[in-house]
Q: What sequence folds into this?
């Protein structure tokens, strides 16, 4: 079937993309199931790389090939540069954040602040100590957990989630973050956990208004109200504390790195002085961007690490090869691993790239068309919701040999992981999306996982606990990120002489 030359309708007008049969009222929603990226991939195999679905009342174009993604994210990048409205995000992020913002002046300004002030190569370098300290702390926690459990399995997934949260919280709030507690005594991680869970659970009501009661029944609105209040109170206090410290002459530098809150307060003060064109960068903008960083930057590194460990456990030869490389790289230094060692680890980056190809934390990239446009010759009206199925593209057998297999060697030749090499120029590998809406935190994310994976493999030997399954169950669960359905419970042996 030739998908690249769709028929033209009356008067030579482009036709809409093909659409499978749907259900009355619900449209194609029931076809998505619990793992939409997989269901959409199967549908695309029958209906083509650009198809039109109706999710409840919302028309949605699904993009599932490298060629179609290239057109949407490069050739017509501007036309597809918006994001659909997500009520839960609007509710929790003050309607003023960047990642979920429609294309326009607000997004442009907020994105510039993130790219220049929070996620630049210089900022990422400045957080090196945080990353190294937190990686060492994780190693310590694993060691203690292994000792305390006396050989019983350790829950690595939960340790990874705490680790990633700690890194992003320190990056955001500075080293004093652990001092912040929510009123009533609960820890701030609990509130952030609820926040992430809510952000990962779409509300049915926005797709199918007459089913909005289901959201209430699930308690989503009440939980969102509680979480918003707790988070807002916390962020207000954090910002007020930072302002107070600044007035007292404490610039808030923690061993050479400046937390995001302090950096955003600099931007806020500069904007107030300039008052250019009425552009606002006020306290609400600071809170919204901090939450963006937390939404986008906390679960993602933990998820990548979890999948990498799962794949390596199922591929012991690759695990051994990487461990030998890491242990050889630091043997001469007779010390623990630091970021200085990473350049010597030529197999680490292929392992991470192959992990990302098979297990993108965000397999469905949400976009919205800004204007009437086209995709592979099909008509896409303005304000159509668009989903780029980057997971289907990463597993497309037309591009990838033995597409379903974990074969890190396929990236051995082009293991470069710096900012420009995170995606493939031919759009066959898009874990970070692409174009003007592409992930601005990719380098931050990669820096957050490399040292941790190397440390876990350097200092420990990992196995599935005896008496259970012989391979990791790779079942997925869909939330804010697509993660392993069952947590990684592993037998771990400290390795005393790397
Ligand atoms: C390994 C980890 C990560 C992966 C796989 C990932 C993936 C993605 C993807 C697929 C998108 C959508 C891109 C598009 O529309 O084309 C995105 C957007 C975004 N990411 Fe990441 N990300 C990661 C880590 C991070 C980190 C650590 C941060 C910040 C600390 C971050 C901040 C953002 C933001 C702010 C956006 C929205 C950009 C916009 O709408 O203009 N990400 N990410």
A:
């Amino acid at each position: 079937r030739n998908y690249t030359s769709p028929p033209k309708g009356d008067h030579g007008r482009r036709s809409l993309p093909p659409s499978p049969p749907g259900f009355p009222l619900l449209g194609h929603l029931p076809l998505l199931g619990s793992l939409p990226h997989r269901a959409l991939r199967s549908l695309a195999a029958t209906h083509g790389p650009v198809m039109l679905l109706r999710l409840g009342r919302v028309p949605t174009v699904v993009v599932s090939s490298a060629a179609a993604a290239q057109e949407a994210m490069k050739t017509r990048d501007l036309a597809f540069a918006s994001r659909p409205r997500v009520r839960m995000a609007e509710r929790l992020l003050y309607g003023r954040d960047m990642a979920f913002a429609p294309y326009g002046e607000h997004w442009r300004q907020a994105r510039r602040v993130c790219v220049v002030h929070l996620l630049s190569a210089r900022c990422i370098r400045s957080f090196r100590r945080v990353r190294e300290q937190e990686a060492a702390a994780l190693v310590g926690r694993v060691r203690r957990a292994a000792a305390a459990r006396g050989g019983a399995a350790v829950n690595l997934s939960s340790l990874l989630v705490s680790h990633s949260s700690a890194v992003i919280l320190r990056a955001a709030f500075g080293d004093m973050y652990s001092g912040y507690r929510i009123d009533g005594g609960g820890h701030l991680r609990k509130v952030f956990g609820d926040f992430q869970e809510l952000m990962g659970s779409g509300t049915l009501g926005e797709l199918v208004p007459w089913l909005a009661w289901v959201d209430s029944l699930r308690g989503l609105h009440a939980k969102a109200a509680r979480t918003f209040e707790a988070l807002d109170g916390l962020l207000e206090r954090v910002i007020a504390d930072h302002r107070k410290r600044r007035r007292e002459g404490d610039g808030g530098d923690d061993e050479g790195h400046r937390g995001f809150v302090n950096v955003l307060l600099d931007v806020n003060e500069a904007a107030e002085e300039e008052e250019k064109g009425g552009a606002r960068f006020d306290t609400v903008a600071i809170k919204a961007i901090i939450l963006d960083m937390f939404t986008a930057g906390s679960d993602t590194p933990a998820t990548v690490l979890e999948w990498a460990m799962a794949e390596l456990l199922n591929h012991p030869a690759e695990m051994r090869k990487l461990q030998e490389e890491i242990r050889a790289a630091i043997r001469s230094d007779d010390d623990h691993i630091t970021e200085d060692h990473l350049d010597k680890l030529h197999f680490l980056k292929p392992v991470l790239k192959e992990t990302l190809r098979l297990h993108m934390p965000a397999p469905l990239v949400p976009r919205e068309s800004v204007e009437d446009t086209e995709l592979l010759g099909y008509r896409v009206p303005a304000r159509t919701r668009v989903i780029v199925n980057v997971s289907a593209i990463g597993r497309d057998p037309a591009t990838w040999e033995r597409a379903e297999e974990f074969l890190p060697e396929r990236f051995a030749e082009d293991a470069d992981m710096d900012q420009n090499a995170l995606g493939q120029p031919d759009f066959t590998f898009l874990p970070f999306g692409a174009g003007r809406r592409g992930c601005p935190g990719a380098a931050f994310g990669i820096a957050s996982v490399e040292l941790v994976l190397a440390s876990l493999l350097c200092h420990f030997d990992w196995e599935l606990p005896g008496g259970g399954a012989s391979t990791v169950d790779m079942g997925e669960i869909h939330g804010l990120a697509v993660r392993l359905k069952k947590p990684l419970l592993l037998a771990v042996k400290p390795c005393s002489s790397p």
Summary: DSSP finds 18 helices and 13 strands in the chain.
